């Protein structure tokens, strides 16, 4: 065990960067004992040196340019917590690897877009490129999947991995408020990215899912193949009615490998209200890992914030200090297979909501469309009439998504529908 | 990355051992890709060679004596899944370390009693001694705590870690059955150890807690200092009445370090019914880790069984194959501090149940005892009289356990009590 310190170059002094500084300073002895050697910060970089950052940075060399930081001879590990998947984050990460530095990053977008090339570069140079903080914040899910479940063939990975979306959905439900109102609240509270579509459009969570899928199935990261649907169209009506049927609506990521290929979805789904996923409130994240030997493992914890994200960064740093090396995505990047996206998702029950004209035979026509498409009905509820119209809820038995879509297109021709029908997948958890 | 296979010597061919054989055989390619080298079984040992074990063992050398297996020159890792904390398991583990073999064990009892000496022996020889499978079955909790949360000062660790006890308690609740009936059911279903007191007496779970506490707080394993109380005295009345107050009763392990010292308890506790711990049903395990940076992480999964336990064993094996080495308890065994057991537990609310004679002033006398002891009342419920007696429930505000005990001893002198009062700690989760 070497006593030489592991020296960090910390690029980015926002919330996460300052969180890392605080842990390194507060727990120097604890970390040295656990890592077998001291972990120190040698140099930092950020754009604005004059900003007050509520941390003592006086002992660290300063670089304005993260690329210059990445190349400094006095650092061993480049810690990238700047964010952004092009520009400085990418060029500095590449420069760090080229200069023989290990890299620890919290940057899901960078890895979702450039993970393959970066992992190949790192592995060719026998360097670590690690990203525990990029997925589900403080939850050690990359470690659980890559190491803890390494003896399993992974069957499915699921997760609620964007706290802002889960906050919005659970608050809509708790307060019976429409999406737009809660979205605006969240924006004003600073819960959303500068481009809120990264959150509510499911992009951020989709990035995370694509990284988990790569590890789970030994495939190259395929973010472009993730079926993405944000929460902007989730209505308070559906939240309320789903609840009435014993379900909750979550922005749920699902990745699974089937005979049809790799499925990756980040879409609003119904899950049973009494399941761990259904019970998840507010900004907390949850990831569900299913392996052929272990069965189902559920991990729950804070998905963002200074402390949790910095905790995950430090886990990677300490692993590097301890000398643990493994490929970025669990097997060597050169061995990752190209993902073959599934043409159609695994069959699942669907929740259908529609409003029918209140005339004889209306419901029968809808039921006929479903039957003709091969979709059978598990439950149906017709609610009290609203004027001349009748809201109808249907829960189907397991059906192929294409069959459901086919039935939906035929609804229009019946002439009994008011407005657009809604279909939401019910994920069996 | 070396292509030389990592060769296992597998001691014990019970459920877990056969689970390991199945994984090694079924996933040879997957494991080789993940570990960077093949993982093979070179030799096995068990007492009875003739027993039918539902696995093809023909390719493995056979030793009747696990000590002989441990010393074989053709093994790199000794996998101990025999069980028992003295005798063969201990001597074979010592022999393996003495012969320069890494050890992976599922044996909580062995480590709870001899972990310090074994870890010192392993570390002096620069060998791995790992035990993921010993705590909470398939949940990668040792990894999460030792590695995933390595940047945190750990504040508290909690867990439901004996599936049989949780099965008994949740079934008592669901079916409104007394302890004795469900205990007998569980015994006949084979859910209990040959000595059932290992399960229902809390000993098995206490072993696990003592191992987690060592890692969490950097202290030597101190199983003898665990406050142990089994579930044998949990009555269906208390389960029902606790539920009525919004709580569930769990055999809950709690380890925390305070200014008073190290607290380790494995006792029946009340937890909020809507908390993750409260919602845990059946044989599933749950561990809650609380760190100063990360906040609260909850891990849930199967705590026993062939697949889950073998999955955990293989995680350790693959880490060793990957070359990851870290001390058994997270810091070098020689640096672990002697645990200073806390003289008294952290204050907590208490649930008190008693039956009072139905006479004027009875409740006032009880309330006076509590007040005199410095225990204040948060909620009180008096239930409908049963003949001349009145069942009374009290939930206190946070109180020192000694003060509660003091009040309880004074209850007797009031002359208004029928039978023995019950006090159960409410753990704030």
Automatic annotation (TrEMBL), chains A, B:
Q: Tell me the keywords, alphabetical order.
A: Amino-acid biosynthesis, Methionine biosynthesis, Oxidoreductase, Threonine biosynthesis
Name the pathway it acts in: Amino-acid biosynthesis; L-threonine biosynthesis; L-threonine from L-aspartate: step 3/5; Amino-acid biosynthesis; L-methionine biosynthesis via de novo pathway; L-homoserine from L-aspartate: step 3/3
One Pfam family here: NAD_binding_3
EC code: 1.1.1.3
Entries under InterPro entries matching the protein: ACT-like_dom_sf (IPR045865), ACT_dom (IPR002912), Asp/hSer_DH_NAD-bd (IPR005106), HDH (IPR016204), HDH_cat (IPR001342), NAD(P)-bd_dom_sf (IPR036291)
SUPFAM superfamilies given for it? ACT-like (SSF55021), Glyceraldehyde-3-phosphate dehydrogenase-like, C-terminal domain (SSF55347), NAD(P)-binding Rossmann-fold domains (SSF51735)
This protein's source sits in the domain of life called Bacteria
| ACT domain residues | 351-429
Q: Which family does it belong to?
A: Belongs to the homoserine dehydrogenase family.
Q: What is this protein called?
A: Homoserine dehydrogenase
- Name its species: Rhodobacter calidifons
